[in-house]
Write a structure and sequence with these properties.
Layout lengths: L10 H8 L3 H9 L6 E2 L5 E2 L2 H15 L4 H8 L6 H31 L1 H5 L3 H28 L1 H12 L3 H24 L5 H18 L6 H11 L3 H11 L3 H12 L1
Antiparallel strand pairs: 1-2
């Protein structure tokens, strides 16, 4: 029996069946996520395959998966809902861990807020540096020490802790300039464009601030950029700030220019 012999649904019928609005179905059609065929009378008609696709869409939406990710997954050959949801669960668990860390940090900040408020400017600055090092150790410390050794990380932390207020401000400004520059470089779509070369130079300078001038090598810089793509925390850091694909493009920039 062919699909033509099975029941089809109008937009309203499918919306009522699925418990969603006709507006939602029209939006899915507009963005290419769920496109019905047109009957001879010109009305939109949904086939059994469309109904099944909608079931998948609604299931993933209920789990918090974004529409872009849903469309990408559904259009992959050999799509598996089970595999998709397992991957999404891993992502949610990672988010949960990050949120728990931020909750702990925020609670600690609130607990110490009274003391922080009575500090003078110099004392506040020293406290901010200590928190920066502590946050790094909690989030990346274990992996960083495995990759670069205890001595290198201890020296990096010491550089941060002994940094002057001016140097700290320049470091913070450089981080923002890298993000702004990466957005501009991505618009060129060329890792070798002048804007991309500028990002590579700024990123190299940022590494030297943390590693020390003598510890920097182009090979280590490229290796670090490659490692970004195997760590979802780094992907989130750059992609959230600069747009989807930013981390991968930054890696391409560094490989092309360093």
């Amino acid at each position: 029996m062919t699909e033509a012999n099975f029941k089809t649904y109008t937009t309203k019928e499918l919306a009522d069946l699925a418990g969603i609005s006709t507006r939602t179905l029209r939006y899915y059609d507009q963005i290419g996520l769920l496109v019905p065929i047109r009957a001879q009378n010109g009305y939109r008609v949904y086939r059994p395959t469309d109904v099944k696709r909608l079931q998948y869409i609604l299931m993933m939406r209920s789990c918090g998966v974004g529409l872009d990710s849903i469309e990408l997954a559904l259009d992959q050959p050999g799509f598996s809902l089970s595999s998709m949801l397992k991957e999404h669960l891993t992502f949610l668990c990672r988010q949960k861990d990050e949120l728990n860390k931020m909750i702990t940090t925020t609670n600690a900040a609130l607990a110490g807020l009274e003391n922080f408020e009575i500090m003078n400017d110099a004392e506040k600055f020293e406290e901010l540096k200590k928190r920066s090092v502590a946050d790094f150790e909690e989030t990346y410390g274990e992996e960083a020490r495995q990759l670069y050794g205890n001595e290198a990380i201890d020296e990096s932390n010491e550089r941060i802790l002994t940094m002057s207020k001016l140097a700290w401000g320049l470091k913070e400004e450089l981080e923002q300039r890298i993000k702004d520059g990466l957005i501009a470089a991505m618009a060129t779509k060329d890792p070798l464009s002048p804007k991309s070369k500028q990002v590579a130079g700024m990123h190299a300078q940022w590494i030297k601030i943390h590693w020390g001038e003598n510890a920097y090598t182009p090979e280590a810089h490229v290796a670090l950029a490659e490692s970004y793509l195997s760590d979802q925390r780094f992907i989130d850091y750059y992609d959230d700030a600069c747009g989807k694909g930013a981390t991968e493009f930054l890696r391409d920039i560094i490989k092309a220019n360093v």
